[in-house]
Amino acid sequence: MRSKRIWPIAALGIVAFAATGYLLSESGLSPNGTAPSIDITEPASDAPPAGETLLVAAPWTCHWDPTYDDNWHDDVLCTNGLEFDRPTLRPDDDFVTEEEMLQSATEYAASLNQ
């Protein structure tokens, strides 16, 4: 009597095990649940060689960036994407407006781009 009760449970276990293997193979996962390994040995043709990074500077641009340090002459930040520069513009003026600073900043960026 006892063996008759075990048989359906054992059969159900075998079916569940087989179904799990089938589902894993259909999903692309290995039986241990990990994705198959992909061998990537060659970089893309336009990529720099391994270990090297290609950095390209853009033209210098300056924008209003107040420092809030009561020094109006350094309220402009300039960058070319790789470097930053906070120039002291119009040092002989006692008071400098934002418009005057941006005009001087445009001239300063043009001088850096020559």
The structural class is mainly alpha
Summarize the biggest pleated sheet: 3 strands, antiparallel
Strand content: 5-15%
- Strand line-up in the sheet with most strands: 1-2-3
Question: How much helicity do the residues have?
Answer: 25-40%
Shape: elongated
Radius of gyration: 34 Å
Mean of the pLDDT scores? Answer: 77
Low-confidence stretches: none
Number of domains: 2
Number of strands: 3
Order of helices and strands: HEEEH
SS summary, helix count = 2
The N- and C-terminal alpha carbons lie at a distance of 97 Å
Describe the structure.
The protein has 114 residues and is mainly alpha-helical. The chain folds into two domains: 1-36; 61-112, no CATH class. It has two helices and three strands, in the order αβββα. It has a three-stranded antiparallel sheet with strand order 1-2-3, with helices on one face. A hairpin with a 4-residue loop joins strand 2 (76-79) and strand 3 (84-85). The radius of gyration is 34 Å and the shape is elongated.
Main attributes of the structure:
114 residues; mainly alpha; 2 domains; three-stranded antiparallel β-sheet; elongated
Give a brief rundown of this model.
With 114 residues, the chain is mostly helical. It is 36% helix and 9% strand. The radius of gyration is 34 Å and the shape is elongated.
